[in-house]
Amino acid sequence: MEWAAPSSWTVVVLAAGKGKRMGSSLPKVLHPVLGVPLLAHVLATARHLDPQKLFVVVGHGADQVKASFHSEELSWVDQTEQLGTGDAVARVAPYLETWNGPLMVLYGDVPLLRPWTLAALMETHIVQKNGATILTAEMPDPSGYGRILRDADGGFLAIREDADLKPVERAIAEINSGIGVFECPKLFRALRALRTENAQGEYYLTDVIEWFRGEGDRVGTLRLADPVEISGINTPQELEAAGKNMALRSKNDPGACPHCQRSYEALLLKETPHAILSLHPNPYNSGHLIVTPRRHVTWFASLSADERREIGELVILGEKLLQRVYQPQGLNSGFNSGGSEHLGMELLPRWNGDTNFMLLTGKTNLVPEGLQQSKSKILRALKEEEA
Prior knowledge:
alpha/beta, elongated, 9 helices, 22% strand, 7-stranded mixed beta sheet, HIT-like, 16 strands, 5-stranded antiparallel beta sheet
């Protein structure tokens, strides 16, 4: 199975909120971060995944929001009465009656999400064949967020909204971001079954999770490493903090994907149309190599036929180069996959029976040379190999 952004998936951005705590008559999603409206940041991130269709659900100040994005190709849906997130997504159903495929729900006031986070979420959903997949994170202060309830083995059980938590559940740090991917048309059947039996008297999108589980569908989660990404904006102070966080982002952003940002350009050995061979930036041994696909992929099952072929070819080439340069007793090799990290095949020379990355045995050939020295040696060997 190959993962790609097919013509069979869409995005719904919820942007109907009034933003009472912002202290402004301006619709919340039009408040600027670094001079750009909140909603514009979210739309730009969503478009990185090239969805077939992009819906925006608007309510408070709908005309003003639409006018601010009049030149963009968007499908606008009105939610005249704010009855909850479940009701907001249900407003899109009439436009997708005959459509099958995954639907991603985003929020117009969450501007710090990275494109590869959304790519990893969609990929996890498809590879695991989930009915629904939820983006989660552990927060130092989870108050105000719905919590992720798990069983004794760590398996997903349910989402409980903050207002409905039992006292013993308030200490749970893992929260529901509200961002998720859902299979349609099942999602719309689940939304029709929603009830308002909760503290807010609203239709919660999160309540569809119980419906999916009841239907026997798998519900998956993807836990974010950087919870700042899902920071929502509700106050001027949070708006200011989002601006500071965004301004700090750069090519060397520690939360960014270094492979996608080409942060390892200086360690590059060879690249093909779909794959890259380079020195590992944090080597365990001299000659520690890594082969990665060019695009952000996190699961092996998502690789295309061309990506698999070219990764395989570069792995074989890497083995030859390491044998030529270092004459190791053997190689440790394996894929790092899953989660949200960029998939990579690592090749690690070993000596003296060092088979399990046991770095402190005293018998490892541990990084006796610098990366540039390794690169120089391997590039010479590559030139000879290709001669």
